[in-house]
Amino acid sequence: MSDVAARIRRVFVRFSSVELHSFSERDKILFAARLSLFLRSGIPILPALTFIREDARTRLASTVFSAVTLAVTRGESLSGALTQFPRAFRAFDISLVRIGETTGRLHESLSYIGQTLAQAQALRAKVVGALIYPALILFATLGIVVFLIAYAFPKILPLFRGFESTLPLSTRLLIATSGFVTTYGLFLVAGMIVLGMLWVYACRYPLVRLRRDHALLTLPVLGELLKAYELAALARVLSTLTKSGVGIVPALNLCTGMTRNSAYREALHRAEREVIAGKRLTDALSHTPALFPVLMTQVVGTGELTGSLSESLMMAAEMYESEVEERVRNITTLIEPVLMVGIGLVVGFIALSIITPIYRITQDLSIS
Fold first, then answer.
1. pLDDT tens-digit series, residues 266-313
2. pLDDT of residue 23
3. Contact present, 50 and 73 (Cβ < 8 Å)
4. What are the angstrom distances between the C-alpha of 179 and each of 171, 184, 185, 312?
């Protein structure tokens, strides 16, 4: 590698992890889609890479594309140039590029990469978008409750202490809660922060991550959504790899490296070993019905019997993507009234606890 290329790579490596995230999925999608279009149009790869580098959206993307362009200029293959940046380009991307270079159909491989990444990004955006709204509502509600209990209620607490009659149960509960929060609130916050840090540290251990991911998949509503999401992403990637000519064993290996859920990663590892031992993919997946439902294994089995595994996997991907969209809509529809009722009950309880004794005081004053 030339001194200039080495210097550019060192600059890239020095970027912090936060800055590395600025090389987003969108950057990779645009890179794959535009390079595919240029090559399909007959533009040589070096001018195409130069055009892409000049139009890079971020400083980091420009740095990466510059290093890739210099490596290709020196005679390296595109796949070899991309291996310099494993945090930007995954093994899946590099494998498809290498296959495209071998078969002389690089533009098709790049198109597959762009389509797969774009579909995965759209699916992830739908799931995240469905969870942002309830998270914001819960956060706002918690903030209002904490403000009322820790700040507003103590202002009128002396009025209740002079009340001779027995206070309502709701008011007594609110007084106890307010006293606990004002006295131990900082300790509670510090304790939650410490527990959060301990949990993040514990999740570094594979066994803890495995138990956590298994538990997430068993949640009543969210678990089925996560399963559908993982199956959709897995089926689409497997379909793209097998359609590009990757064998089922290396395809499973690549999917294992891409999967974030430890439960599915372990299941794919087991399936890969069983396929190497001579079993069909259908039989290997059917051993974990909690992760790979009967419908998924039936679709895969049909593809293996008919010799159209990539088409069957793509059909499964589209089927589970539709299921994700449907479950997202159902969750959004269901969670709005539940949140409204919950917020109403909490705010109503606080309001009732404050208003009831005040009303009694005014009644006693009017009688006297």
1. 999 999 999 999 889 999 998 888 899 988 999 999 998 888 888 999
2. 67
3. no
4. 12, 8, 9, 61
Instruction: Say how far apart CA 309 and CA 287 lie, in whole Å.
Output: 19
Contact between 76 and 86 under an 8 Å Cβ cutoff? The reply is no
pLDDT value at 195 more than 90: yes
Residue type for position 20: L
Rounded distance, CA 283 to CA 274, Å?
Answer: 9
Query: DSSP class of residue 167?
Result: P
What letter represents residue 64's amino acid?
A: V
H-only helix segments in 203-308: 206-217, 222-243, 248-258, 262-276, 281-286, 294-306
Give CA–CA dist 207/321, Å, rounded.
29
Task: Give the whole-angstrom CA distance, residue 219 versus residue 197.
Answer: 23
Q: Which residue do the tokens 């009543």 mark?
A: 220
Both structure tokens of 365:
């004053």
Closest CA to 237 of 129, 93, 357: 93
Task: Give the span between the Cα atoms of 240 and 235, in whole angstroms.
Answer: 9
Residue type, 100: G
CA 306 – CA 301 distance, rounded (Å): 9
Which of 239-248, 271-280, 329-338 comes out lowest in average pLDDT?
329-338
Q: What DSSP character marks residue 77?
A: -
DSSP 219: S
Q: What is the pTM of this model?
A: 0.75
Percent of the chain with pLDDT over 90: 11
Rounded Cα–Cα distance for residues 72 and 69 (Å): 5
* CA–CA distance, 140 with 137 (Å, rounded to integer): 5
Terminal CA-to-CA distance of the chain, rounded, Å?
95
Q: Which DSSP string corresponds to 23-64?
A: S-HHHHHHHHHHHHHHHHTT--HHHHHHHHHHT-SSHHHHHH
